[in-house]
Amino acid sequence: MKSNFDFLSQYWSTLAKIGATAEGYLYDDPNACIYKIGMFAERLVKEIFAFDHLPEPVDDNSHSNRIKILKTEGLIERNSQIDNILFTLRKKRNDAVHEYDDSLDDAKSMLRLAHRLAVWFMQVYGDWSFTPEEFVLPEKEPDIDYKSIIKKQEAEIAELIKKVEDVKTSVSDKSKDELSEKAAAVSEGMQLTEAETRLLIDDQLRMYGWEVDTNNIRYSKGTRPQKGRNLAISEWPTDSKVSKNGFADYALFVGLKLVGIIEAKRAMIDIPSVIDYQCKDYASLIKSEHDEYVIRKWGKYKVPFIFATNGRKYLKQIETKSGIWFQDLRIASNVPKALSGWITPDGISELLEKDITAVNAELQNTPYDLLRDPDGLNLREYQIRAIEAAEKAVIDGAPTVLLSMATGTGKTRTILGMIYRFIKSNRFRRILFLVDRTSLGEQAADVFKEVKIEDLMTLDSIYDIKGLDDKEIDKETKIHIATIQSLVKRIVYAEGDYMPSVTEYDLIVVDEAHRGYILDRELSDDEMLYRNQDDYISKYRTVIEYFDAVKIALTATPALHTTEIFGKPVFNYSYREAVIDGYLVDHDAPHDIHTKLRDSGIQYKKGEVLVVYDPNTGEVLNGDELEDDMKFEIDTFNKDVITPNFNKAVFEEIAMDLDPEGEGKTLIYAVNDDHADLIVDTLHKIYEGYGISSEVVKKITGSVAGGNKKKIWLNELAPKS
Prior knowledge:
Layout: H1 13-25, H2 30-51, H3 63-72, H4 81-98, H5 104-126, H6 146-160, H7 176-188, H8 194-207, E1 211-212, E2 230-237, E3 247-254, E4 257-264, H9 271-284, E5 305-309, E6 324-328, E7 337-339, H10 345-353, H11 356-364, H12 369-372, H13 381-395, E8 400-405, H14 411-424, E9 431-435, H15 438-450, E10 452-454, E11 457-458, H16 459-462, E12 464-466, E13 477-483, H17 484-491, E14 507-510, H18 533-546, E15 550-555, H19 560-566, E16 571-573, H20 575-580, H21 596-600, E17 602-604, E18 609-614, E19 619-625, E20 630-632, E21 641-642, H22 644-656, H23 673-688, E22 712-714
Parallel strand pairs: 1-2, 4-5, 8-15, 8-16, 9-13, 9-14, 12-13, 14-15, 21-22
Antiparallel strand pairs: 2-3, 3-4, 5-6, 6-7, 10-11, 17-20, 18-19, 18-22
């Protein structure tokens, strides 16, 4: 009996045997077949770890976490076909264990997906020139003693599974970057069938709260809408003649209401054209016998929402061939658009309840007097102009809005007034206030709790606000404060059975929108989420673009990356305008401090020994003798080398220009958290000699502990400046 997985035995005999054993179980025990396929995927991931010499995680050495690490390392491209296949095989294995899934149809589809995974693995990690034979579904041969064969294979697997050995293949000399590029290319070229695509879509829909099973929850098997259930019923009949039989791949029902039609296509099909022809035809030709499920008609359409997808998660680079394309048929001017995820049943219901035209009119008719109230927000005129500009852009249909306001001109209070008007007019039902540092979120939460808005009440006392510690929200939530890092975990690295709906928020407010592009590398435990600065920017943008919501961003310094996401500012209030208007004090002429170390740098000779400080262990050790001369330029001071004498000289000069007991504030920017500690300590010692309280110097950083993870050279031997 030839197995579809025999080609793996050239390098990975364990994988080949697990695949063959899964095939042997197919007809007599589909549940065991599904379980073995899950085992196959898990073993394959371990083989990648071994090939790339990656240490397996210590704290959470689960299959899902190992997949997450491979995505973080760039060895599996997020949202790729392989990412989708691994997710589905893992979920199906869990179903086999916990829910005793024994569907023969599921087992057959999973064998095909496992074979695609095996081919990808061989073409990336085995032989780049490998050409696979076409997958052949095993046939049940009555004369073969499957039980004896499987028993022998299981015994062999039990021995082989105990260890993963280093394997030499024809691509063993390839770098990780080369393997990563090859993995993405092979995955990109994968052509899934519609049946395989539907298996992936089933698992995606299930994550978003729909009851779905292409093979069993289908019209032909008697499934009909039911009160209290959110069903995705497959093969729903219509009077359409566009396709051979007029069946829509899925019909979505919230209770007894027909709310959506989904058409699934194979991988490389251009999806928007499916929306324009097939989906719209289905939506307009619902059978008259099913009119009891129709909410109402919108022109010729009996269904409000239509979707088309090929199972691929959204990728901007191949927009028309990925994502979930969606169109709201209730308004004729609406056009199809790509979504990053599915809409939940609750999200569908909320969309049905919302009348954009009515709430826009209510917003326009809401006066601004409350924002000027001296006992309330008491906003300045330029702050109100900023809110007016944002509202006009929203009413005009702009998906993104950028406001540029100089530092110190009250962006947070402006945001507070804007959010209040949006909620009070019902223009937006739920708002995400997004920050990239916990400290910024805490600052915003304090403003929401302390600043009076109406009738001496704060925003926090009027509406339900969820804070940084709240991971889940409910219908009553109006504002949710969250960090980029927390949403990366929920969206990019989702591990549970739930994904936030793309409609979970209908407005995202991003404070300090430029900050996502100046990563200071002090992200403590969350640092593991990002490989580098580019990866951070990518995930930042993924989170911003994931939700089908209006995005309003505020910044003092619109960087190129900021305008690429949010567009050009619709409102500007510059530092110069604020100075002229009397709201900010103009800066003094720069004070350029020169020291010997700044001008000459720090030089060490071959054979000298440096003192090394490791912040991870807190140890101060003598380093090895230098093998060559070493020089540190000024731009590396306090990053790679800490120079107490240099800092002392600089801050003695700065201290002479400051009035530590005056009313003004002075901000000193540190290189990192360790440098901030050094600055505070230096200034404390300087002012101590003048009898000035230590309270005048405070460290205010986004990372109180953790600090930089790299080693820092501690220069105690430098000459005085």
